[in-house]
Amino acid sequence: MNLWLRLIWMLITLPWRPRVALLASSKLGMIVLPNDLDFNGHVNNGRYLTLADVARMDLMLRTGAARVAWRHRALPIVGDALAKFRRDLKPLQRFDVHSRVMGWEGKWVFMEHRFMAGGRVSGVVVVRGLLRGPQGNLDPQALAEALGEHGPSPSLPAWVLEWSQSCESLSQSLRDEE
Q1: C-alpha torsion 64→66→72→77, nearest 10
Q2: Using CB atoms within 10 A as the burial measure, which of 11, 74, 105, 125 is most buried?
Q3: How many C-beta atoms surround the C-beta of residue 126 within 10 A?
């Protein structure tokens, strides 16, 4: 239920948040609610992924990517996620999620969600995702161009490329098992 309430609140407040360029960072303010907590009294590690979902939807709406996806009847799909936890987020603590598109390669778009509290990084969630419609996957370069970004993808950090390759290796291993 908490996800739906946060999602509805994000949608209600959307008109008061500025549009964001595709390669710019968005910021979405949140507060730690009691049902975000685990037995240790801090945000549950799985909750970070849920909160990143809300922030990613905010980013898609504010960049216009959602509009392009709807035009192609495409839905966002997260293929893989990576999380790094650095500092606790405690009950009723305010924090911001800074979201950005890092770049794209092949069919994948790489996005970063930084959880910031008190000017410090509490956690980071990185996802590689795509938009899939009835005609197949939407080309990330075509999506970028539809949003006014006509250059190539920004260079992705080596660790992102290595992580992406390990995801591909795991996918192949799973296909081989089947």
Answers
A1: 140
A2: 125
A3: 21
Host H or E run for residue 100: strand 94-105
Where residue 172 sits, what CATH number does that domain have? 3.10.129.10
Number of domain units in the chain: 1
What share of the chain has pLDDT > 90, as a percent? 97
Give the distance, in angstroms, between the CA of residue 80 and the centroid of all CA atoms in the same chain. 11
Phi-psi region of 103 (alpha: psi -120 to 50; beta: other; left: phi over 0): left
CB 100 within 8 A of CB 23: yes
**For 60-78, what is each residue's pLDDT tens digit?**
999 999 999 999 999 999 9
3-state SS assignment for residue 62: helix
Residue 1 pLDDT level (bands cut at 50, 70, 90):
low
Range of the domain at 65: 2-177
The pTM of the whole model exceeds 0.90: yes
**DSSP string covering 121-177:** EEEEEEEEEEEEETTEEPPHHHHHHHTT--SPPPPPPHHHHHHHHHHHHHHHHHHHH
